[in-house]
């Protein structure tokens, strides 16, 4: 299948080659409103609460642990920018010969991907769906936002969407099999899906620049038991997602893996640029992912949690640490003549 992936940044095989370090970076990284809803919009669905200096969506705080405030929304938009850089300016790995008529963006966040997709594909009707009302009130005529829970039974018609997009829901979806089965049921025969996920249970390092005794392993040692307590499987790898997509019934399943540096330490210019964007987002991502988790689930006092998070960020932000993570893209198609619809 043809894809939009630019050459030079993809990790291949199960043991991809190391990223060559060589750039001496400095410590600064230089270089209410939803249009519609499938639920009745009661007051409570619009409410937020404030805790430990962050804002959370009241109705889903125990279900989805990340904040919804401006700081988090800015982070989501930086990550969108990262993906555009990664995919050479494209919104997807999947290539379209014509605009897919009905498109769903699952867990759309600020709605930035849905709006961009609607802009590029004027012939598509795009729905961005999320638990939390953090999408803009104004939208393009072919883009609308809905509030709903992807883990509940989907209310859309069967065989409806020609393209379903799902990005960074590792903290959102508890039951991936069920999620993908629902995705399959609501994809039109011959329709396509694309899932992108990142690793979320460790950071890697190939050259011992991130020592065992540093703040980073301590951070993961505190965070991982909290995920376990919640029964959240944050350790899925690209091959796991691929298998789950295949098991749901999709065909032409392709996995594209990227090894992405955290920080501007790579010799390669393109990777260095990506690493700079990642570093920028990691500064706030670490708190977004871990503060509520460590305090509410782990029972850690807020000051201790902040200290741990800040130490991990400082360590990972040090350009002498050659840390990286993986980003996976899985593309697939529902058979034109599905055995089960
Ligand atoms: C990390 S953000 C990713 C946002 C967006 N996909 C992007 O890439 O910019 C995860 C989003 O999923 C939403 N979410 C979490 N659990 C959900 C669920 N069960 N149903 C619908 N949306 C959910 C959150 O509110 C949040 O906006």
Automatic annotation (TrEMBL):
GO terms for molecular function: methyltransferase activity. The keyword GTP-binding does not apply. Residues 1-17 have a biased composition (Polar residues). It holds the Pfam family Methyltransf_23. InterPro entries: SAM-dependent_MTases_sf. Keywords: Methyltransferase, Transferase. This is S-adenosyl-L-methionine-dependent methyltransferase. One of its GO terms (biological process) is methylation. CDD domains: AdoMet_MTases. Residues 1-40 are annotated as: Disordered. The keyword tRNA-binding does not apply.
